[in-house]
Structure formats: structure tokens, C-alpha cells
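Students often ask what a holo structure prediction actually looks like on paper. The answer is less mysterious than it sounds. You provide the chain, you provide the ligand, and the output is a string of C-alpha cells encoding the 3D arrangement of the protein together with uridine-5'-diphosphate-xylopyranose.
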Amino acid sequence: MENQGRRRCRKLVLVPCPFQGHINPMLQLGTILHSRGFSITIAHAQFNSPQTSNHPDFVFLSLPDGTSSKPAMPHDFLPFMSKLNFNCKDPFQEILSLMIEKQEQDDQLPCIIFEIFMSFAQEVASHLKLPNIIFHTNSVATLLTFLAYARLKAEGYTPPQDSTSTELVPGLHPLRFKDLPVTNFAHLDGMWRVIAMLSNIGSSSAIIWNTMDCLEQSVLAQYQRQCQVPNFSIGPMHKIASAPSSSLLEEDSSCISWLDKQGHNSVIYASFGSIASVDAKELTEMAWGLANSQQTFLWVLRPDPAKGSEPSDCLPDDFKETVGERGCIVKWAPQQLVLAHSSVGGFLSHCGWNSTLESISEGVPMICKPAFGDQLINTRYISHEWGNGFELENDLGRGEIERAIKMLMVEKEGQEMRQRAAELKEKTQVSIKSGSGHPSYECSEILQLSYVVTVWMSLTLCN
Ligand code: UDX
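The corresponding C-alpha cells follow.
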């Protein structure tokens, strides 16, 4: 028994989509699976390369992606991703072929886990006959919304002309027409490519979701009924794995010592993720809305290299003087720590899926100011399904922003949302199923997932 005692390599190759809101959950997933005994290789695009030094247990492989400039988001997302998928395919195939060639006799073939937008990874995996699994970093409701376009079209549904219509979308409760990522059905060209990508299960053997049953049980069950492969909802991943930071920008931790000096639930945290941008007018209205609310606030003003100037330079002259110590402004915050801080009592957010999960996990109620895409869907669920926040319509002035903040932080309606946020936090903790010592790893879905991955890898054992 020459090979007896030699540890079988259970190798996973993870392929993240290169944007902050997608890199974070993929590296968290890597941390979870590493803790279950898998070796983790991250095959990433050159664009927005992850900070490798923060993850000494992972192997990082950089794929030449042929992209020379930063895409203007969200408009350039599709052409950028098409180019990246095209350019990364061959280098990825070469890397995997080499990996297979070099493996030892009793090693198992690697299993590929790829973010749904990195479809080249599935093409390569199918070609090399490697087991592969899809990872979705958005909500299940978002996927079902995209898939519904085809159904609505097939049913001959004619959407209202008005993109601000509050008419409910048939079969997509609780979404209104205005909550759809694209409302103009006459211009769905690019959308069909996204839908084709999202609906392609191809050779994949399972789907992993960064979501929780306590939030999305019914939509998950609905999707599972139309899907041939098992779905695993193992979120919120950032609470399951205590993964190191995967921030692409440097986190300014000084805001944590500032938070330490504030009262319980007294601070409104305002941050709009890594992509959404605010124009000069919105910035001014937001600044005075925060200032006039008389609440203490922490505000992330992310620099936008495309604009050349720092957003904080564009703040009104007398703004900083007016707010003094009552406001803290940073370029990038350690958001998970911020939301977990006892001083933070509300989150004014664009409602990206990670921000939504991070807020729910900490029981922080939200004011939703979505910018595009899935943020509109998440907002509708927060305000009309889960009840842990409300929507602030776009293009509103300082008066409405001030009133919204006061409502969340000091008024009765805000108290009720805080209560619902606390209940959701509790349900989240129950769904994580803490065990002693190693909380999260007791989570039954993760155990099942590890089992499934291991079995597939055994089935494809190299002879
Ligand atoms: C993008 C899309 O815009 C979003 O709609 C989609 O759901 C995911 O991909 P992004 O806009 O960056 O994501 O938002 P979000 O999903 O909230 O992810 C942002 C991540 O950056 C979060 O994990 C958050 O904790 C982190 N973050 C944000 C920081 O670490 N510091 C900050 O100052 C702000």
C-alpha cells in the first residue's frame, strides 16, 4: 500500500468576479472551505487583484485579463465582463491543464467554484471534465427577477410605459415595476446576455448562495423547484468565517476609536459601497441632510479616481465647521466592524447585497437609497418584506434626508424597524447554528456542501 497515509489533496480552485462586492464573499467562502480541510487556490483577474498577503493559506494565480482601463460602472459592466471572460479563458485552461499534469498519482482532480459572471471557468471545467460549482453573490430574489424577464416576454406581458410605475410585476411579489433592474422592455439587448449567463447551469453540479433561509426560504424553494442541481444557502458568509479583510482600498480604522466615544445606537452610518457614485449636488444635499438631522454620523466618502478630486474637497465650506466632532468622514471603513459596533444605530445605504447582509447580521435598521441593479430589489425586500428599513427616494433634497434620518434614529417608526432588525439578527444567529468553539462550522448546509464536494472529487479521482 504505497500510498497509504498520504493525505489526499482536496483542491478547490475559486474564480471570483473582480469587484469588491464579489471578491469579499468569494474569499469568505474560501476561508469556510479551507477550515473544512480543502486547499484553496484563487484564480483571479489582474484587474482588482486581491491582497494576497492577507490570505497566507491560499495560493493565488493571476490570469492575464487584457483589460487596460477601469470600467465606468455600472454601464461598462457587460462589455468589460465579456472581454474579461474571453481573455481569461485560455490562460485558465493552461493553468488547470498544468495542475492536472503535475498532480500525484492519488491526488484528486481539482473542483472549480466560480462566480456566475465568470462563465469562462465553467467552459474550461467542462472541457477538462472537472467538477464545478456555481457561486451566486447576489440574492436569490435577484436571480428570479432576471429569469422572469423571459417569462413575462413569453406571456406577452406589456409593461407600463412609465418607469416609475408602482404597478406590481406579475408573479414577482413584492416587486413593483419600478423595482426592476431594467424597466424598459424595448431595450433588453444587453439584458439577454446577462440572463443567459445567469440561467446557465451547464455542467455544474451544485449552486452555492450567500443568503439565509430566514430571509429567502420561499424564493429559494421556488428556484430549487426549477433547478436540477442542489442549492446551498450558507450565508451570511462573513459571520460564518472570520475571514481576513479583502478590501481593495485601505481601511481607515480611526473611525472605530471615534465610534468608541459615541453613545449606544447614536450614530448613523452612511456608505454606498464600492461602485455607486454621488454627483456634486447629491453630495451637498446629503451633507446638509446629515448635518441638519442633529445626529452623530460616520460617512464614507470614497475617492473616485475618474473624477480626479476627493469628494470631501467638494463639501460645502461651512459644513465641517457646522458639524464639528459630531461627524466623522473616512475614505473607506472597516464596514463589518462598524456595523457590529454598539454605537451604530442606523445605516444609510445603497443596499448592495453584502451591505444588506452585514446590516441584517448586526441588527442595524436601514435607510435604503439604491442606485441601480439588484439594489432596487434588495430595497423592496427590506422595506416591504423584512421590515428592517425604508426607502428614501432618489433625487431628494436635504429636508427629506434630514427627516428620514430623524425618523430612523429617534422616532417611533424607527424603533419598530430597529425591533424587526433585532429579530432578524436573532434569526440569522439561529440559522448559523452556533456550536461551541467553532461556531459556524456546525452549520448543516456547510457540512452537506463539504460532503458533496468531497464525493464529487472522489468520483473524479485520477487513475
Ligand atoms: C456590487 C453591487 O453594486 C451590488 O449591488 C451587488 O449586490 C454586489 O456587488 P457594492 O456596490 O460594492 O457591490 O456593494 P456591497 O454589495 O454592499 O459590497 C460592498 C462591500 O464593501 C461590503 O462587503 C462592505 O463591507 C465593504 N465596504 C464598503 C467596506 O469594507 N468599507 C466601506 O467603506 C464600504
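Residues 19-22, 24, 138, 247, 271, 273-276, 300, 332-333, 335-336, 352-355, 358, 373-375 surround uridine-5'-diphosphate-xylopyranose (CB under 6 Å).
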